[in-house]
Design goal:
1925 residues; alpha+beta; seven-stranded antiparallel sheet; 47 strands
């Protein structure tokens, strides 16, 4: 029995402090005045009596009741029930207002007179430890009523009876009926069970106020120990909500700060760092709004505020959804039948108190589901004198699969859970509803899975139990409670509360206490009977998360057992073969548990010596099992591994033994204090259990334990009582034992704990002590090297007798030893304190630990020394790779392991070595997979193709037996990636030497150091310093050039410094060459260079030999060496243009002197050179560099690159010569003379027959459509024929030409139309955008878009990463085809095909000549020219023709191979794939036209590979001049080999000598291969002579990813070094074998039918002893069927396809031409933007000058310029708009020229190419536009751009100018975060306002803009913000 009320307190307003300026309360009286012995009085109660503060008021308020909760130091709650009312007080001012002399103004005292009436608060307070709030409310109400109504009952009697009369029985007691002496009758019912909270309807109120979601979130916050603050206007709500949240935690108890009603003066408590549950009045909401880590719930509004930095963990998805669904069914029972077609009557709503209990039942069931099986994880470490239990958290999380559930982890780590273990952990105690629920829940869940309707029934049953707990007595008792009448508090003459007599109160208390002591019924109450707590079902529900592919099948476990059996039976080969499968299976916890069980079963005793191989394999299995486990050891694998690790060992020598536990130290679990404590408690519980077992046969503590989920052991122990059951039985019998027996049991348990503490201290030292300073082995020993550091002598591994008197007091153990001592000491303190070990034993442990550490540190040196003497592990033998002729290995090979990269390569990883040769980088090794270890893995690439080399840190490889080492990643331009993990024997010095050698060979100092020229002699010594080597030399050259440009002739030198050597003079005796070397043509720099180098011109450089070169013969074949053309010799010594060949075709009428002047106008002096002539239309294809810009820099560049002497008027003369040269090309074009026969296929017919929607330029009469009439015929011949006879003109007629030249306007005027419409030009000059060039009549520049070098380089890098990724792709990473698309490589190929297709159509259909004049003339010009010639000329599709094409377009006419392929002595920015892109385009042609090419795809891939390999001399140098200096001019040598039709196998000595001196040519090598094997031949080759022109499809969907980028053969390496493969092929047997894609060469293993037949014929001839004939002879001897049957008849479908392709090509060509003309056309005038307007005054129309009239609508008005007119006159007004701000009118009202520009879309190499097809002038795509200054991202410069805001595509695009049809870039508005005005940025544009700046911040960068003024900036900001909304 306990008191109902501890103290009765009267608290009033403190008037004394109020006069001092403070408002507070004061305790007026308290009863009893002396503290109870068991319950002290709490000071500071006055703070909680008025939560909003003590203050006087002018108005009387109704009495209020609220409850505050105080918590003492013992976590006991004291309830303060307060009844607050007002009393009338008289206020006398201390100083009148007129006596305030210090204030300047009188202080107003409005409502306070000399005797003003105010109301002061007063409180009646009951302080109690009991939670009977309704009883407290009734008692205080009775006392207040007796006082107010003056009923005549002394208040002292009421208070005395209240304090002494009412005694409350504990939970489970009977109902108490009492009266406090005022005629009242009251009843008080204790709950049935002590721990269950009483809530009445508070939980229902919480759910009703906050809702289900917010209530569950708030519950999760309280359960996870967050700070929770409740806010409300009503104190009753705050108390009820706090009570509800605390009740929903059951069976947990809230152990943190709990204040349901916080006073305003204690708001600082909210800043506490500890969790709390506090309620405050809503008036304090603003003061608590700044708290950053407090969750605020407003009960009045129903809102929940969670700060951004607070993360509330929630239960896993299934548990949370079940909780919310059950709450919804309880609160909304109509949900079950809401969708019923025949709805039953609505169910009767449960009363609020039952709903309250049902909600509590739902939360209780949720916690029971979460903690299901928790009692099986309780660990008991002491039974007597009092039980001590701990909880195995990691084991519970692992068995339940909750390790990744943050809510469960947070709950188990909370103080609540520790209290639950301490309160409900003992197995012998009284039980309650919670224990029954945990026991019955599994059966309930099983039944509910069969019948879901039972779930609500079970909830209601549990709710009924909770209700019966609150109201166990169903009998009703009629109470009588006095209440004051209405309005009693408003009485004016109410006397104050009298002062109570404390003596009288004490007398009443003593009297009542004596009377209660005489009642025996209240003292004879029985305590609850304890019993054994049922353990319920074990924890279940664990899943193998994260290992979906790993299954725990019986087959995998059988493989594991077979592997362990093979290890112990010394069958090491069988064990190693099954190791990959075993290592994969060990990812599952069931397999790890099976491993531990099997190893424990094979342990005969406490020590088991193994052989070295057995020990190594066993340790590897242990490491793999521990690696898959986490640091928490959820499945107890590490704990079960401890006894095994201390038992298995191997003998190093006599007295030195290495145990397994020293080889498994590299795991995080050993450093976890929580793991050691859990393992210690498990072993202590096992020993405690064995201590009380009746039979000694149950002592299995020396046997290795198994993990907790061991099913086999659990079946064996099915009849054995658990530790908790034993503890319960011992606790039941404890009181009956004699004291001596009790002391003996206590000592036994304490000794058990102490011995285990000693044992675990040794174990921790073994596993934590490192081997620093013990002589770690330095040599490489494979899998033993990483474990040598962990080897120690362990002769006392399992000894428990080590004591502190071992005498080890030597040197300091070092930092590592001290750390181990500290950690072990902390562990000992923790476990011994919890286990109740005596202080003497703890002191002995602390003294023993340093001795153990010293002992192990001394023995580690001996073990390390003996481990070095072990024989090294046999590693695979390094096998040298097969080399090509001339290749040699340089340096030692690096032993390594080839790791798998992002490609799906089989048989990786592989162990071998990395070789560095003078040609390649080769890895050769064998797979680590034991089932494929007989295979060979080779991956190689040429050194010159290396693009990037970097050191990487690789991850753990499952096949490796050592820890990860340093790695090396090498990427090549041949789409190979070598990613190796270096072996531990490779030192850092060896790696540095390797990398330096690699860098040295990668970029040799001279071209002759490359592998292709390696047999040649050393290069000549370096010459003099280069020009401009010093500042003085630079100044000298600058002055000389300035003087030469000014017309001053240099003073001749007396020493004749610039005279050429005699050897050169002898070779230049022909008149053409002598004239070309006049003083006017050689520059000072080149003469100096020639004189300094003294390069000897080879004797073979004669005109006859030059004309026999391949490109010269091809020009002769095309007719470019005969009139009206000639092969000029002006560049015979490469003085005209160094990058041009010695001879090249030009028009016959242009002299050599004119060529020199023309060359000055072009970059790099690469003047237009004829390269191909159409055989039918005789149109010409010429190529050159882009002309110089007309500016100062262009003039200087032209002067620097010109070899003639400077004269006055040179620029003017060169420009005229350039126009004359172009006019000569026009005159040589048959189209200019009207000689084109097939004019029906011209582009004019396309212009006239296309639909208007596709060619809107023809819609407007008088422009393009009318101009087509004069584009050809006699008119064209009349104008172009004037210059048809210019070939014999001399330079003296230059002035006449200048007077008579015609402009384009003259041609237009002669043709009858001056509007500048469409006309067919005779010469189209394809040039760069924005480049103004000199044109003549008949010429038309075509601005083209093309992939430049920079774009190609970036696309190549992305393509290389996509084809050869360095790591496997993540699940969310884009796939291969997406990466290829994002690279833009196929889009650049598309642009090449479009440009080449335009050239093909102009040459073939229109008969016009084309001049390619782009960049420097050696990149995209070579690509387009070569592609166009392949499409036009079938000769170039043969093997011989393709070689001629490459030698002509790429080798003779020059291409910067050294810079583009990055093979020069100086590393460049990167690899530029210009030539590779051309070969890819050829591959696309082969795919689309498989019958048109004589060579196959392997031929193209072979050329692509060796273009970067530097194995052949073909692509080493940039031009013919560089090759001539080294004597490497590729003269086409006659076939000096065998010309017979048989294979003799004899190589000519003359050919070997020539190859040794000059290096080998790639095409000579290919010709020899072609003669020997048909691997390069396309057996489907059937040329179509009727349709010789190829017109490929250029759309991206028609292009394919080249096999060259993705193909790989690991069996031999790259399949393009055939000599290395043939050596391996000789060793391969003819037996049947498995062919693997990605490893074997499928074409070689399974050749095509024709190739296989030819090889079979050759082998049969060899078997018969005949000399085998060449395959081509056999192929040509085949008898063909009737030629009529083989004739390719064009079907209807093929003709339709050909016609459609032709039309598509025509359209593409037309778009290119129209786009070029529109780029030069003037911009259209701005259009008016009309809108309806009413004029206030009469106004006239701006068009017809008539009066605007009408009552409502008086016409239209332009919203931009203000022009007014009639509606009918709006379309006819010709005056342009003077202020352009808005978009132009719709498409039908616009100028056709503008719409034509819109119809032509330029496709960009990005995913936004569809958006960019829309013009900036389309009205529908513009929301706002105008000029803005944009600041650059890199150089931070301001540039003006035309911006268009598009709300349809959600973009902000910007253009160079308003007239541009294609944007320069765009900003995706989806990435925009904010738009705001910004301060002025540095370097702003001129005349700008400081308020005109604004910033647009995206997720990637911040864009800075500047408008013309502040208004424009504000308008842009508003428009952008409107689009963002």
């Amino acid at each position: 029995m306990s008191r109902l009320v501890d103290y009765f307190v009267i608290v009033g307003f403190d008037h004394e402090k109020e006069r001092g300026g403070l408002s507070s309360g004061v305790i007026l009286q308290r009863f009893p005045e002396i503290n109870w012995e068991d319950t002290p009085f709490h000071e500071g109660i006055e703070w909680f009596c008025q939560p909003q503060g003590w203050a006087l008021s002018t108005e009387r308020s109704e009495p209020r009741f609220y409850v505050s909760v105080l918590t003492d130091v013992d976590a006991n709650r004291h309830y303060c029930a307060c009844l607050c009312f007002n009393e009338t007080v008289a206020i006398t001012p201390t100083k009148p207002a007129d006596e305030d002399e210090e204030s300047l103004e009188p202080r107003p005292v409005a409502n306070i007179t000399h005797h003003s009436i105010m109301y002061a608060p007063k409180c009646l307070v009951i302080v109690s430890r009991q939670d009977y709030l309704d009883t407290f409310r009734n008692c205080l109400g009775i006392i207040y009523t007796v006082w107010v109504e003056n009923l005549g009952v002394p208040l002292e009697t009421l208070v005395g009876n209240l304090l002494g009369c009412v005694l409350v029985p504990p939970a489970g007691g009977p109902q108490v009926r009492f009266s406090i002496g005022a005629g009242d009758r009251q009843a008080l019912q204790p709950p049935a069970a002590p721990p269950l909270p009483v809530t009445h309807t508070s939980v229902h109120m919480l759910l009703r106020l906050l809702g289900i979601h917010n209530s569950v979130t708030l519950w999760c916050a309280v359960m996870s120990e967050h700070k929770v603050l409740l806010v409300s206007l009503a104190a009753a709500r705050l108390a009820a909500a706090c009570r509800a949240l605390a009740a929903l935690m059951f069976p947990f108890r809230y152990a943190h700060v709990y204040i349901p009603l916080l006073p305003s003066g204690l708001v600082e408590v909210l800043a506490t760092p500890t969790p709390f549950l506090i309620g405050v009045h809503s008036s304090l909401k603003e003061e608590v709004s700044e708290l950053l880590d407090v969750i605020v719930a407003d009960l009045d509004v129903g809102s929940l505020h969670i700060p951004a930095g607070v993360n509330i963990p929630r239960p896993d998805g299934k548990l949370l959804s079940s909780l919310q669904e059950d709450l919804a069914l309880v609160l909304q029972p109509e949900l079950r039948s809401a969708d019923s077609a025949f709805a039953p009557p609505p169910p009767a709503a449960s009363p609020p108190h039952m709903l309250d209990k049902e909600i509590r039942a739902v939360f209780m069931r949720t916690l029971a589901k979460l903690l299901q099986g928790y009692r099986h994880c309780l660990t008991i470490i002491r039974i007597h004198p009092s039980p001590v239990l701990t909880f195995h958290k990691a084991g519970f999380l692992g068995s339940r699969g909750l390790a990744q559930c943050p809510f469960a982890v947070r709950l188990l780590d909370s103080m609540f859970f520790n209290g639950l273990v301490a309160e409900r952990g003992p197995p012998w105690r009284p039980t309650d509803i919670w224990d029954e629920l945990v026991q019955n829940l599994p059966e309930h869940l099983r039944l509910e899975s069969l019948n879901p309707n039972l779930e609500l029934q079970h909830i209601q049953d549990l709710a009924m139990q909770l209700q019966l707990n609150e109201n166990p007595n169903p009998q009703t008792y009629q109470q009588r409670i006095l209440r004051p009448p209405e309005g009693a508090s408003a009485r004016i003459h109410q006397p104050p509360l009298p002062t109570l007599d404390p003596v009288r109160v004490k007398e009443v208390i003593d009297e009542v206490t004596a009377r209660n002591a005489e009642h025996p019924k209240l003292t004879a109450l029985r305590a609850p009977v304890p019993r054994i707590v049922p353990p319920a079902a074990p924890p279940a529900g664990a899943t193998e998360a994260g290992h979906v592919l790993v299954t725990n099948s019986a087959r995998r476990l059988e493989v594991l057992r077979a592997c362990i059996a093979a290890i112990f039976e010394c069958r090491y080969a069988d064990a190693r073969k099954s190791f990959p499968a075993v290592l994969l299976a060990l990812r599952a916890c069931a397999a790890r548990a099976a491993l531990v069980r099997d190893l424990a079963a094979r342990l005969p005793s406490n020590k088991h010596l193994l052989h070295h191989h057995q020990f190594e394999l066993l340790v590897r299995l242990m490491n793999c099992a521990l690696q898959s486990a986490s640091a928490l050891d959820e499945h107890s694998i590490a704990a079960a591994m401890l006894p095994l690790a201390t038992a298995y060992c191997r003998k190093l020598c006599t007295g030195v033994i290495q145990y397994a536990y020293m080889c498994i130290q590299e795991h995080q679990v050993w450093t976890s204090q929580q793991f050691w404590e859990a393992a210690f408690y498990q072993d202590v519980q096992r020993d405690i259990k064995a201590l009380y077992l009746p039979s000694p046969t149950h002592h299995h503590h020396q046997r290795a334990p198994s993990p907790r989920d061991d099913d086999e052991y659990s079946l064996l122990r099915a009849q054995e009582p658990s530790a908790l059951e034993i503890a319960a039985e011992q606790m039941r019998l404890w009181s009956s034992l004699p004291p001596e027996k009790q002391r003996e049991i206590i000592a036994s348990e304490e000794q058990t704990l102490y011995s285990q503490a000693i044992h675990y201290a040794n174990r921790m030292v073994y596993l934590l002590l490192p081997l620093e300073g013990a002589g770690r082995r330095a040599d490489a020993r494979g899998e033993d090297a990483d474990r040598a550091s962990n080897s120690i002598t362990n002769s006392v591994a399992e000894s428990d007798s080590a004591d502190a008197e071992s005498g080890f007091e030597e040197a300091d153990p070092g930092e590592a030893g001290n750390n181990v001592i500290k950690m072990v000491s902390r562990f000992v303190d923790k476990v011994c304190t919890e286990g109740g070990v005596t202080a003497d034993h703890v002191r002995c442990l602390h003294q023993m630990i340093p001795g153990v550490v010293h002992m192990h540190m001394e023995t580690l040196d001996a073990v390390a020394r003996e481990s070095r003497r072990l024989p090294p592990v046999q590693k695979p033998r390094i096998v040298a790779p097969w080399l090509v002729p001339g290749e040699a290995v340089s340096g030692a090979a690096l032993r390594c392991c080839l790791a798998a990269d992002g490609r799906a390569a089989p048989l990786l990883p592989a162990e071998g070595a990395l070789f560095l040769t003078n040609y390649r980088l080769v890895f050769r090794g064998a797979p680590l997979d034991p089932f494929a270890c007989e295979q060979t893995v080779v991956r190689s690439f040429p050194l010159c193709a290396l693009t990037r080399e970097k050191a990487v840190r690789t991850h753990y490889l499952p096949h490796l037996e050592h820890s990860p080492q340093e790695g090396l990643q090498l990427r090549s331009a041949t789409f190979q990636l070598i990613k190796v993990v270096l072996d531990e024997e490779v030192s850092s010095e060896q790696l540095d030497v390797f990398r330096k050698a690699l860098a040295r060979v990668r970029h040799p100092q001279h071209a002759t150091h490359h592998f292709a020229l390696a047999p040649r002699a050393m290069p000549p010594p370096p010459g003099p310093p280069p020009k401009h080597h010093t500042l003085k030399g630079f100044a000298k050259k600058t002055l000389l050039k300035t003087a030469r440009r000014a017309g001053l002739k240099p003073k001749p030198s007396k020493r004749q410094k610039y005279v050429l050597p005699s050897a050169s003079a002898r070779s230049l005796t022909s008149p053409p060459l002598m004239s070309s070397l006049s003083a006017d043509t050689l520059s000072l720099e080149e003469l100096e260079l020639a004189g300094a180098e003294g390069a000897e011109v080879p004797a073979a450089r004669t005109l006859e030999r030059v004309r026999e070169r391949a490109y010269a013969r091809d020009w002769a074949r095309l007719g470019l060496a005969a009139p009206p053309f000639r092969l000029t010799h002006t560049n015979a010594v490469y003085t005209l243009c160094r990058s041009y060949p010695a001879v090249f075709p030009v028009p016959e009428g242009v002299g050599d002197e004119s060529l020199r002047r023309v060359a000055r106008c072009y970059r790099q002096t690469r003047l237009p050179c004829l390269t191909w002539r159409h055989p039918r239309t005789h149109a010409l294809l010429a190529r050159s560099a882009a002309p110089h810009h007309k500016g100062v820099m262009g003039m200087l560049k032209g002067s620097h690159q010109t070899q003639g002497a400077a004269q006055s008027g040179t620029e003017t003369t060169s420009s005229l010569e350039q126009e004359r040269y172009l006019a000569t090309l026009v005159a040589c074009t048959p189209a200019s003379r009207g000689e084109l026969e097939d004019s029906s296929l011209s582009l004019d017919s396309l212009l006239l027959t296309e639909e208007p929607t596709h060619t809107p330029l023809l819609n407007k009469p008088g422009t393009m459509g009318a101009a087509t009439r004069g584009s050809g015929g006699a008119g064209g011949a009349r104008h172009f024929g004037r210059w048809g006879s210019l070939k014999g003109r001399q330079p003296s007629s230059l002035d006449l030409y200048q007077r008579q030249r015609l402009s384009a306007a003259d041609v237009d005027s002669v043709s009858g139309d001056g509007t500048g419409g469409v006309r067919r030009a005779s010469l189209y000059i394809v040039t760069e955008k924005g480049l103004s060039i000199a044109t003549v009549s008949g010429c038309e520049p075509v601005p083209a878009e093309y992939p430049d070098g920079r774009a190609a380089r970036h696309a190549f890098k992305k393509l290389l990463r996509a084809a050869a990724p360095s790591a496997p792709a993540a699940p969310n990473d884009p796939g291969f085809y997406r990466l290829v698309e994002e690279s833009g490589w196929l889009w650049q190929l598309r642009q090449l095909f479009q440009l080449a297709g335009c050239v093909v159509d102009l040459l073939d259909l229109q008969g016009s000549s084309v001049l390619l004049s782009l960049e420097d003339g050696w990149d995209v010009v070579a690509q387009v020219s070569s592609l166009a010639q392949i499409c036009l000329d079938p000769y170039y599709r043969t093997i011989e023709g393709f070689r001629t094409l490459v030698e002509k377009e790429w080798l003779a006419l020059g291409h910067k191979f050294q810079q583009r392929l990055n093979i020069g002595p100086t590393p460049q920015q990167g690899y530029t794939p210009t030539f590779l892109m051309f070969l890819d385009a050829v591959h696309q042609l082969q795919k689309q036209f498989p019958l048109a090419f004589e060579f196959n795809d392997y031929y193209t891939r072979l050329v692509a590979y060796h273009s970067t390999s530097c194995r052949f001399r073909t692509f080493l140098l940039d031009n013919e001049a560089s090759r001539a200096e080294l004597g490497l001019v590729d003269e086409r040598r006659p076939d000096i080999g065998n010309r017979l039709g048989v294979e003799t196998g004899v190589t000519g000595s003359e050919e070997d000598v020539y190859r040794a001196q000059h290096g080998q040519s790639l095409f000579d090598y290919i010709d020899k291969l072609h003669q020997k094997s048909p691997n390069l031949y396309n057996f489907l080759y059937t040329p179509d002579l009727d349709n010789p022109v190829l017109r490929p499809m250029s759309s991206v969907c028609s292009l394919e990813v080249w096999e060259y980028y993705t193909h790989e053969e690991l069996a031999h390496g790259a399949p393009y070094d055939l000599e290395a493969q043939s050596a391996d092929d000789e060793r391969e047997s003819r037996a049947r074998r498995t062919v693997t894609a990605g490893y074997d060469s499928i074409p070689r293993a399974m050749p095509a039918s024709f190739t296989g037949l030819l090889e079979r014929i050759r082998s049969l001839e060899l078997e018969l002893g005949h000399l085998p004939q060449k395959w081509r002879v056999r192929w040509d001897q085949l008898e063909l069927p009737n030629t009529l049957e083989l004739q390719r008849n064009s079907s209807l479908s093929s003709s339709v396809v050909r016609r459609c392709t032709l039309m598509l090509h025509k359209r593409g060509t037309l778009e290119l031409l129209v786009r070029g003309r529109l780029a030069r056309a003037p911009a259209a005038a701005p259009q008016h933007r009309w809108g309806a307007a009413a004029h206030a005054a009469p106004q006239r129309c701006d068009h017809c000058d008539h009066l605007l009239w009408g009552p409502v609508k008086t016409g239209v008005r332009c919203m931009d310029c203000g022009a007014s007119c009639h509606e009918r006159c709006a379309d006819q007004l010709t005056a342009p708009c003077t202020r352009y701000k808005a978009p132009p009118p719709p498409e039908r009202d616009r100028d056709p020229r503008a719409s034509g520009g819109n119809s032509v879309g330029t496709l960009q190499s990005s995913s936004q190419q569809y958006y960019e097809q829309f013009s900036s002038n389309v009205a529908e795509n513009r929301t706002h536009e105008g000029h803005l200054y944009k600041r650059g991202a890199l150089l931070k410069g301001w540039k003006q751009r035309w911006f268009v805001l598009d709300s349809i595509k959600h973009q902000l695009r910007y253009y160079d100018a308003m007239e541009d049809s294609h944007c320069k870039g765009f900003i995706d508005l989806a990435e925009v975060i904010t738009v705001m005005q910004a301060p002025p940025a540095p370097g702003p544009p001129k005349k700008c306002d400081d308020r005109s700046f604004f910033d647009l911040r995206t997720s990637r960068r911040t864009y800075n803009f500047c408008a013309s003024d502040a208004n424009a900036a504000q308008e842009w900001i508003e428009k952008l913000q409107a689009c963002l909304q």
